């Protein structure tokens, strides 16, 4: 089974990832590019996403929710470009989890992703429940998304992360499609790991919902300084562990969230903090996958 549970993992003895230049920690920033692909009456859905704030809780709007739409539009119109500037000024690489439909609606952003050298992981065609899909529909949407990314960004996705939970078929369909180095539909570890799918070795690079800017919308944090300190604490713990056992850290971002000026200040502070370390590897997910494949080959390739 592609999703047979493994509650043991590395059993407390994880491998030395041997990150480049003996880095004690690998950090990967992920920008979820989704604006324009969310649930919306304007997109033909029966309902629209709410404003994602407590003020919108329990409110029912018949027809289009123009307020919610404009919050998403802020991400693509303004927030994306602020994040783009911050990352480019600091020459920090990142990965984009892209919804194909969203990138089709913003050619300028797609071109900026391509020109920045950021790598791409498929985030689905749009906001859809993969776990509700029939196998044939999911297969078709994966292929449709790949073709779309090649047209808009000029590259195929090297990884995959479902907008919502994957189906029990997703991982197998990715392996059958081919061309993917990894998927990130897991939150199970601090390091990549191999799994077996339909008799083939397949790499999983786990993601996280912890070190993620969604905590601003969920009411966990109100101030940028709180978010910065939270992420910094994760960096510090993993960096200390890295003396003997290096790990990786994913940091999830959304243009419509971290892209607002006050929150963006936390991203600036975090990048400047990381810049003070000579042995932290800020890198793309594709680079992590290629390093792991070369350094820790799949069991059946040794």
Task: Tell me the layout of helices and strands.
Blueprint: E1 25-33, H1 66-89, E2 95-98, H2 100-104, H3 107-116, E3 119-122, H4 135-152, E4 159-160, H5 170-177, E5 182-183, E6 193-197, E7 200-204, H6 214-217, H7 224-241, E8 247-254, H8 255-258, H9 261-274, E9 280-282, H10 285-295
Parallel strand pairs: 1-2, 1-8, 1-9, 2-3, 3-4, 5-7
Antiparallel strand pairs: 6-7
Would you kindly provide a written description of the structure presented here, covering whatever features stand out?
By secondary structure, the chain is an alpha/beta fold. The protein has ten helices and nine strands. The strands form two sheets. Strands 1, 2, 3, 4, 8 and 9 form a six-stranded parallel sheet that branches. Strands 5-7-6 form a three-stranded mixed sheet. Helix 1 runs parallel beside helix 9 and helix 7 packs parallel to helix 9.
